[in-house]
Design goal:
Structural class: alpha/beta
Helix content: 25-40%
Shape: globular
Largest sheet: 8 strands, parallel
Distance between the termini: 77 Å
Oligomer: single chain
Number of strands: 23
CATH topology of the largest domain: Rossmann fold
CATH architecture of the largest domain: 3-Layer(aba) Sandwich
Strand content: 15-25%
CATH class of the largest domain: Alpha Beta
Radius of gyration: 29 Å
Strand order of the largest sheet: 8-9-10-11-13-15-16-17
CATH superfamily of the largest domain: P-loop containing nucleotide triphosphate hydrolases
Low-confidence stretches: 10-36, 38-43, 326-342
């Protein structure tokens, strides 16, 4: 009996509507921005090039600088969401808008959930009112040229719930809305409905056949194609129907099976494709499923509409409900291959050698032992290791043994760049993500003999890398390079201009010199004839602020008052997320005690502080010293600890007069005894 992956694959096809796969990986448009469309691949649509250009013109080429609402309307399954995704991810769009966000409204919309999705918030549900969230969204978009996509809008109420959150600064911002209801599109438009509204058309017969052929007929004989053409005509140019039918026929191997299924579809005499006829076409794919796979499919009804379902979690639910156990002729290995590994012991791993996707979380020896056992997983293709920032990974002896590994993500981990070079021994590695790396060193030199022969995408996020020495020879097939929060990186190796496959460099919150090097690479690529290579730049930082975090003047003024006038016993500083600058959080009066100072440090968040410590020497002399305290508790988020650590030296240089520095992860490390011991 067929594997349950058949259902998962079919669902992916339906969700992506009628997309043909292109390049294997796509990187997020903006990690810093809020919700992104659920798409992980660049795709090529069939028959939509003209419509693509029409919508793009409305978004970035129309002379109107007012906030305009652009609507894409059409019946369900015609490809509205897919077209919107293509536009949202297009390089000309991402480079034009300062900020992008995506939200799905769906049939039963929730204003609060839409606001949280647009803000990228997951834990604010009990902390902020809808009005507060609306204000936050408005402020985040204010003075930005933004593109917001509202997908699958069913009612004017869904639009009205959010419309006041979108500021109009006269800078060409746009809201792109998809809907199957003309009245919704008409309600949102402030101009002639034809200026910023587009109704999607059904595919032409030739386009419909091309879509079906790519999915079902490529390796078939002429007899199969003869049967398939009337089937495609029955779909009336609706992409979703064509995709589902093609998926069904691709699993039929004999002419008799094709003919029987085609006859079942042809039994209807409907001349037009209404909702009932469309449902009948789609039901053929469902009816063809084996009994147990139907149960798996129907189980999806327990999830809310447009809910993102993790495949591993779904498979475990199927297993718990007995839907998977009931399959005939299915081994334990095949079942285990569809669930997340719960235990990485030697015994467990050796019993499930077919695992293809593993995510390991842990610390210290536990995670190292788990990695050591991965060598038994000869079919492993995707590996993600989350080390909590405390784990050094044994790359040399273990990970390089995974000869089928295609995607590797490490975060946050401890390693040195020389170990990353050894990953080049992975013969099929296509994507490498290094996120919030710790103590990797400031220089990454890749020797000539080190070649990442199949690497397509390289993502480096949050590291102290300063010098990068590499050549095009090291990355012969690289297509996408993403650098985020590489606060000290001076430049990208200029020799990357000779990588003929390079398509994009996305650089966010890096130094101007690094951005300039990316643009030089783009210029040289164009000299070589590659006009499709793009550079996407976001939030370039001041060269004087290598961490990307500034310092407001009040911090320096208050410190001077503490130093010269002794107005305060201590000052607590924090990094403000909104302004990305160090600000004053609390001023402790000269009468406050050390206990009050210690209590001012939040137990789960990082802070900076200065403390004016008075003491008496052995010679009975009264003295004082100004301590700088870098507070980074173990329970603070890893990203916060990284940002505070990379900003510390820059901030301390602004405080001329600090005499002693303390780094504390626990209150005991900044006790009075500690101050006394360091003061002498």
């Amino acid at each position: 009996m067929e594997d349950i992956d058949a259902v998962k694959e079919e669902l992916v096809k339906i969700k992506d509507e009628y997309v043909l796969q292109g390049t294997p990986d796509v990187l997020p448009i903006s990690e810093a921005d809020s919700s992104q469309p659920a798409s992980e691949s660049h795709n090529k649509m069939i028959g939509r090039n003209k419509e693509f250009e029409i919508i793009k013109e409305m978004l970035i080429q129309h002379p109107s600088k007012k906030l305009e609402i652009v609507s894409i309307k059409g019946m369900g399954g015609i490809g509205k969401t897919t077209l919107a995704k293509q536009i949202y991810e297009d390089s000309s769009i991402t480079s034009y808008f300062d900020k992008q966000a995506w939200v799905v409204a769906s049939q039963h919309h929730s204003k609060r959930q839409m606001l949280l999705d647009l803000l990228g918030s997951k834990d604010d549900a009990d902390k902020s009112s809808d009005e507060d969230l609306s204000l936050r969204l408005y402020q985040s978009l204010k003075r930005q040229r933004y593109l917001v996509v509202m997908d699958d809008v069913w009612s004017v109420e869904a639009w009205d719930a959010l419309k006041t959150c979108f500021p109009d600064d006269g800078n060409g911002s746009r809201v792109l809305l998809t809907t199957r209801f003309p009245e919704v599109a008409n309600h949102t438009s402030s101009r002639s409905k034809d200026d910023f509204s587009h109704e999607m058309q059904f595919l032409k017969q030739s386009e419909s056949w091309q879509l079906f052929y790519e999915k079902a007929c490529k390796s078939r004989s002429a007899e199969f194609k003869t049967i398939g053409r009337p089937v495609v005509e029955k779909c009336k140019g609706l992409p979703l129907a064509i995709i589902v039918i093609a998926g069904l026929f691709s699993k039929l191997n004999t002419l008799d099976e094709w003919e029987n299924t085609a006859n079942a579809l042809s039994s209807s005499s409907a001349a037009t494709l209404d909702d009932e006829e469309c449902s009948r076409i789609l039901s053929l794919s469902y009816n063809h499923l084996p009994h147990n796979l139907k149960a798996c499919f129907l189980y999806l009804g327990v999830f809310p509409e447009d809910h993102k379902i993790k495949a591993n979690n779904l498979a475990r639910l199927w297993l718990a409900e007995g839907l998977v156990k009931a399959f005939e002729n299915e081994s334990f290995d095949a079942v285990a291959n569809r669930i997340r590994a719960k235990d990485c012991s030697n015994e467990y791993i050796t019993n499930i050698p077919c695992l293809k996707n593993v995510h390991i979380r842990g610390k210290g020896r536990e995670i190292n032992a788990c990695i050591a056992n991965l060598a038994y997983l000869e079919q492993l293709e995707r590996l993600c290791i989350s080390g909590g920032g405390e784990t050094h990974i044994p790359i040399i002896n273990d990970i390089v043994l995974l000869k089928n590994l295609r995607k590797l993500t490490l975060y946050p981990m401890r390693f040195v760049w020389e170990e990353i070079n050894i990953l080049s021994k992975l013969p099929r590695l296509e994507m490498l993500k290094l996120l919030w790396t710790l103590n990797a060193g400031k220089e990454w030199e890749i020797q000539e003999e080190v070649i990442f022969c199949q690497l397509i995408a390289l993502v480096i996020h949050g590291c102290v890398l300063k010098q990068w020495k590499a050549s095009s020879h090291n990355f012969p097939k690289l297509k996408h390079l993403v650098l985020w929060n590489c606060f000290e990186l001076r430049e990208i190796p200029i020799d990357f201009a000779e990588i003929s496959t390079l398509k994009s460099i996305k650089i966010s919150r890096c130094l101007p010199s690094a951005v300039e090097s990316a643009k030089k690479i783009q210029d040289e690529q164009r000299d070589y004839g590659n006009y499709n290579m793009v550079v996407v730049e976001k939030e370039t930082r001041d060269a004087n602020s290598a961490s990307g975090v500034g310092v407001v003047d009040e911090c320096k003024l208050k410190f001077l008052e503490l130093k010269s006038k002794r107005n305060y016993r201590y000052i607590v500083f924090k990094i403000d997320e909104a302004s990305q600058a160090v600000v004053v959080e609390k001023l402790g009066s000269h009468e406050e005690t050390h206990i009050q100072f210690s209590n001012s440090m939040p137990p789960n968040e990082c802070r900076y502080a200065v403390y004016d410590y008075d003491f008496t020497t052995d010679e009975n002399c009264q003295k004082s010293k100004i301590f700088f305290v870098a507070w980074a508790p173990e329970t603070a988020p890893i990203r916060s600890k990284m940002v505070y650590a990379s900003s510390k030296d820059r901030f301390r240089r602004e405080l001329d007069g600090v005499q002693v520095e303390l780094q504390a992860t626990d209150p005991s490390e900044m006790s009075l005894d500690t101050f006394k011991g360091r003061a002498y």
